[in-house]
Design a protein that fits this description.
This protein is mostly helical and about 260 residues long. The protein contains 10 helices and 5 strands, in the order βαααααααββαααββ.
């Protein structure tokens, strides 16, 4: 439906989103490692680290040598394995744009726990709903879905630049594209459960993220903020040659590319 490009939302409690950056780096490193392997070895890695419901529920066993980690750990390890570059890139773009502010609202360690719990919830929901329990589930989508749910509950009115249908850049309040995206996951789970995409993992992550943000956010961090936040660097004074635009509240807002909007 859309690709997030940029959100006008500064960090308030942390200086750097270390956990978000580390998660992106780890996902990229695992993808690079599997890309350099032979096709047979890459498939073995996918099976060994992926989440396989039939194995997790004791209905099947992996062949000897394929059990890279203990089976309970695959509720987490699957989220660091991706089937291809675009699978990786789409997940990491969402994490890059939205993860920093969720980490800011929780703190580093709580955000890491949050991310892993959303991944585990996505795997469990997938396992309960899938029609192909023998196939391995891979990808960070369950965890990313939790991040999206938490973000829209924290900052529904923050302006987000999104690329709609890969062509049209639009600045929208976060709740518009994100609630549409969340609705799509539930719709597809109901009407296309046999698709290659695990809508069940997405829905599991969304539900976990919506619940966990209530318990894991910092004390005093509000839900459903009503203020469109402008980046600190832009609030001060626009530098020479910097593309800026007037916001709806009279403040200036940085655009993600060199073009003015007035």
């Amino acid at each position: 439906m859309f690709i997030p490009l940029h959100d006008a939302n500064t960090l308030k409690h942390i200086k750097v989103q270390w956990v978000t950056l580390a998660l992106i780096a780890l996902n990229v490193a695992v993808w690079l490692f599997t890309s350099l392997e032979s096709e047979q070895a890459a498939q073995a890695t996918t099976v060994g680290l992926g989440y396989i419901p039939a194995v997790a529920f004791g209905q099947a066993q992996l062949a000897e040598g394929l059990d890279i980690v203990p089976e309970p750990l695959t509720y987490l390890t699957y989220a660091f394995v991706h089937s291809g570059f675009w699978h990786l890139a789409s997940n990491m773009v969402f994490l890059w744009v939205f993860g920093d502010n969720v980490e800011d609202a929780m703190g580093h360690m709580r955000f890491l726990v949050f991310y892993l719990l959303c991944a585990a919830a996505g795997a469990l929901c997938h396992g309960l709903l899938t029609t192909t329990p023998e196939a391995p589930l891979v990808g960070a989508s369950g965890a990313i879905s939790g991040v999206v749910a938490a973000y829209v509950m924290l900052h529904p009115r923050v302006r987000v630049w999104v690329l709609v249908f890969f062509r049209v850049p639009l600045p929208l309040p976060a709740f518009v594209p994100l609630l549409l995206w969340i609705g799509q996951q539930f719709f597809m789970l109901a009407f296309a459960p046999d698709a290659d995409v695990s809508w069940g993992a997405h829905v599991g992550g969304i539900l976990a993220g919506a619940v966990l943000i209530l318990a894991l956010r910092r004390r005093g961090v509000p839900l459903f903020d009503r203020k469109i936040v402008t980046p600190r660097a832009v609030r001060n004074e626009a530098g020479v040659g910097t593309a800026v635009a007037a916001g709806t509240d009279g403040r200036i807002e940085r655009l993600p590319w060199g073009r003015d909007r007035r």
